[in-house]
Amino acid sequence: MSSSIQGARSGSTANSLRAPSFRLGERIVIGLLFGAAAISVGVTIAIVISLFAPLPGFFEYVNPWDFLTGTLWAPSFADASFGVLPLVAGTLQVVFYAMLVGIPLGLGAAIYLSEYAGNGVRKIVKPILEVLEGLPTVATGLFAVFWLKPWIQESTPFLEWTSPFSIGVAGLTVGIITIPLIASVSDDAMRAVPMALREGAYALGATKMRVALKVVLPAAISGIVASFVLGASRAIGETMVVLLVAGGGSPQLKIGFTEPAGAMTAFIASRATGEIATGTIDYYSIFAVGALLFLMTLIMNMIAIRFVNKFREVYD
Amino acid sequence: MSQGIPKRASGAAMAAAAVTQNIYKGANNKALVGGIMFRLLLLSALGIAMIAILAVIAWALVEGAARVNVGLFVNNPSSFRPEEAGYRPAILGTVQLIAGVILLIVPLGVGAATYLELFADRTRWYNRLIELNIQNLAGVPSIVFGILGLAFIVRGVFDLGFVVAAGSATIAILVLPTVILASREAIRAVPSSLLDGAMALGATRLQAVRKMVLPSAAPGMLTGVILAVARAIGEAAPLLLVGAATFVTFDPNFWQDGYSALPVMIYNYAGRPQEEFHTLAAAGVLVMLVVLFFINSIAVWLRARYERTW
Questions:
Q1: A14 to chain B: which residues are within 8 Å by CB?
Q2: Which helix (H) or strand (E) element contains residue A245?
Q3: Do β-strands A81-82 and A73-74 pair in parallel, antiparallel, or remain unpaired?
Q4: CB B147 to CB A180 under 8 A?
Q5: Pick among A28, A240, A298 to test the B interface (most B CBs inside 10 A)
Q6: Is residue A298 within 8 angstroms of chain B, CB to CB?
């Protein structure tokens, strides 16, 4: 850890160790390094401005209440309607199906990695999970469209498959993508649980499975919850898979595994690719949906960061 | 299952027994079988993740391998002759895009990581703000960076237009948190005694950082940059918003309007109704996967070659 490096600078003895001369060149370089770090804050401010500045223009035409509670999303109809609920419903369905896959599989992989796998196995499995995370989502999405969806369709003839698009298949695919994220954050949390807790339980005669489920899992619960929240946040933000598998969307509010449905990300991506004139209400709608998307993921990330810091505080 | 608690047990033994009862309800064959089943269940979770990777690769191979030929790389796209269409402008676009990304993320990522690990005083509010901010940026959906690029870089403040440079800047901002986090880890792996020793011999802090810490951390940082590049190559969603979506049949120029990128072109082909275009899309995915495989191999090799235990 860098605590000793930090200590040398901020400690009370630092003053006497400091170079007696004033080195302008060094100060400029350190200033530049600070600037590189501070750019990230500038990026966040720019994101907030670019998302929220067009909102007053948008809400001049659309009542904010109608935007948040309306159930018809038809920005390009002659009689345009801007109720965002169909898009939110699409996104939430993706999150639901994604977590149905991501939580059990991600957590299962994490328990195996942290409690069962030896160092050799970990060294092989972790990079493989990273490969899954690193697959371009276009590739995963196309696989889902051309192989996974037909396969699911054939094996579930009792469902009503009427559309080439399916929000359920999109969600399941996104769920597979979230496995590595959930697994690695949960794994970190469980490995942070002190060995003494496990040894205490073993000494009392507990089996390995009981130690994993009744001792390690509860002790690491805040980190595990954080991994679920991060996974859900990743699912909300996933664009290409949803766009490819669930389609650009239908204007009506639709709920069901086999329905085509537009999610917020998919709407933004499909709308912006068309020739769209700056300053139109249609153009502003991208920013309104983007702002809502940003707020949702921001809140979830803040919750997750708080949970992660909590387990660090307890055991560090 | 009764554990046979002694009648004249002390309070401590009672407590221990109670805990034992709670954690350990029965050790018999059932528990053994349960343990094995549980282990298999956990293994199947890992198995499904691996099958998913193999399935995506298998799809690209089965559907696209036959279509990989020279024309795929050197031919221009065509909207009505799929058997002769290729990825030429998209590949050139991605190459230029990635060059721009590397130029931006190396100084910014390494600079930010160096500052945060070696110079920042963590008790200051602005340094903590930067840390929290980078953590948060890493979780912002990629499409939001596309909106930022559209509003700030393509139009607005920088007003570059729909050019490769705008795409580079957008993707660079997107992967910057990854580079910073990886670089910080690389710096943290270098023991502080190196820095302390150099400073004890009279080096200034900056000299010690430049001559001792950064060279030792360089392979780790390079690995982080390479992994960020791998991510940048596959990123399609934000590029849709900053202009890569246009159907171009000419070679892109870094500052000139109109460009495409490999993942966006693949998306474009996949959306067409003809079967031949789907094959073309699969072939494009295959090319992209092969490139990513090589890039990741370099990262793995670097990590193994330069990994040092202090």
A1: none
A2: helix A240-246
A3: antiparallel
A4: no
A5: A240
A6: yes
DSSP SS3 for A238: coil
Q: Which residues of B touch A179 (CB under 8 A)?
A: 45, 48-49, 52
Question: Considering the domain boundaries, does residue A60 fall inside one?
Answer: no
Residue in chain B nearest A175 by alpha carbon: B49
CATH class of the domain at B70-306 = mainly alpha
How many residues would you count in chain B? 310
| C-beta atoms of B234 and A134 within 8 A | yes
Is the distance from CB of A156 to CB of B73 less than 8 angstroms? no
Q: Are residues A43 and A185 in the same domain?
A: no
Token pair 């202090």 is at which residue? B310
How many domains does chain A contain in total?
2
Determine the 3-state secondary structure of A81 from DSSP.
strand
Q: Is A190 on the interface with B (CB under 8 A)?
A: no
- With respect to residue A74, please indicate whether it lies within any of the assigned structural domains: yes
Same-domain pairing of A171 and A26: no
- Are A118 and A251 found together in one domain? yes
Q: What are the pLDDT tens digits along chain B (310 aa)?
A: 445 545 555 667 766 766 666 655 555 677 788 889 999 999 999 999 999 999 999 999 999 999 999 989 988 888 888 888 889 999 999 999 999 999 999 999 999 999 999 999 888 999 999 998 998 898 899 999 999 999 999 888 888 888 999 999 999 999 999 999 999 999 999 999 999 999 999 898 899 999 999 999 999 999 999 999 999 999 999 999 998 776 788 888 888 888 899 999 999 999 888 899 999 999 999 999 999 999 988 988 888 888 777 6
Binary contact (A41, B63; C-beta < 8 A): no
Q: Which residues of B touch A236 (CB under 8 A)?
A: 141
A128 and A29 co-located in one domain = no
Q: Is A55 exposed, middle or buried (0-12, 13-18, 19+ CB in 10 A)?
A: middle
Plot region of A276 (φ>0 → left; ψ -120 to 50 → alpha; else → beta) = beta
What single letter denotes the amino acid at residue B31?
Answer: A
Asked if B237 lies within 8 A of A239 by C-beta distance, the reply is: yes
A258 with A287, same domain? Answer: yes
Domain ranges of chain B: 11-67, 70-306
Tell me which residue range forms the domain holding A42.
Answer: 21-53
In a domain, A3, yes or no: no
Which of B1, B36, B61, B147 should one mutate to test binding to chain A, selecting the residue with the greatest count of A CBs within 10 A?
A: B147
- For residues A73 and A191, membership in a common domain is answered with yes
Q: Which of B31, B109, B278 sits opposite A207 (nearest CB)?
A: B31
